[in-house]
């Protein structure tokens, strides 16, 4: 065994590196031809797995990779979720994350039962594919280059971050039921769900508070240690509540959301690191699904898988979403768009490995049916996001605010941030010299980029339409500056 090292490790790392390189290189061409990038990762894994066999990875390792990957994805999503969205859209998103998940699972199960699956197996399949995936949803939205209305985008984001725990609870409970073989008890099931959610919520709030206090007080010798500390908090937020019968995934999302809404030291560096980790997790999970899938089994269950996937996209999710959003006066177009952009991705991949590991009979059938659900969701809703935005009229008006090219990277937390604007002709500041702008105290224009040229800002600099303007501002003055520089949002 010793003599095979470091050769075996070198081969494993070489294979992993090549897979990642191929996945990243094919991401840009996939966007150009309209294929979601996550599907490229999956197809590369399928080709490699069918060519070199399926000994590269087993289901136990896949489950661990998937669990860690989902923790990283949810933590990144929570860091980028502002409290304003939570306050305004928590109730409808919570219904989508609970009742809509259960309703979707039941309707998918009904379809699978009609196609010949045993009822309990059909319910398990429905539970596995019942929740949407935050990383898949927002990579598709970012790739489409559109701005959604605030209510639509916020509802989709919150739902995707909050609905994973319910799908996990449903899957684990039904798997245990299939293994145990005893009668199903609704009181026991509801009690288990309540405990999982309550412990997960409490742990997330506690870890978020403790983490924010720790980051505010600890001074580390190198800035790169801050992302290491937040990664440790993500692991603890999942591990501790899970050990006490709670939902670790819910705790991770709540913890990250609390941290992301605090004044973090080295904030931009922390966000960049977790964005990269979330992408790495997304790539890894889709590669794993491809590596584990067996083409012969896929062919044998192809027609059933396609029918289940179409029933999910065209019937189950639209019906469940419509019923849950009825009390909140979402327009028919908004409801239709939210129903359509309910992509499946990392979560079904993770959950599909659990029944196989647990030894559930015919679990490999479920795993390969999930493959079709992920592929069809990526090809139909995922590749038609831009078309759906236009069809349902949910795009937000105004000029998109660009990401800043200037950043403040400091170990200590600074009470300012840099925001950027592309000036619209109708903006209040357009045509005005810098000295005439009623900027709040402490705010200042740092740089103007005009026709790819960086201009130093003097009191006589006149702002023009199309200028890319970078402004330093205190967080409490951000809204006032946005109004002056023409950030327009259609709610």
Cα-atom radius of gyration: 24 Å
The count of DSSP E runs of length 2 or more, i.e. the number of strands, is: 4
Assembly context of the chains: single chain
Query: Pairing-aware structural class of the strands and helices?
Result: mainly alpha
Mean pLDDT over all positions = 82
- Strand fraction band? under 5%
The parts where pLDDT drops under 50 for at least 5 residues are none
Q: Which terms summarize this structure?
A:
491 residues; mainly alpha; four-stranded antiparallel beta sheet; 4 strands; 65% helix; 4% strand; globular
What does this protein look like?
With 491 residues, the chain is mainly alpha-helical. It contains 20 helices and 4 strands. It has a 4-stranded antiparallel beta sheet, with helices on one face. The longest helix has 32 residues, at 83-114.
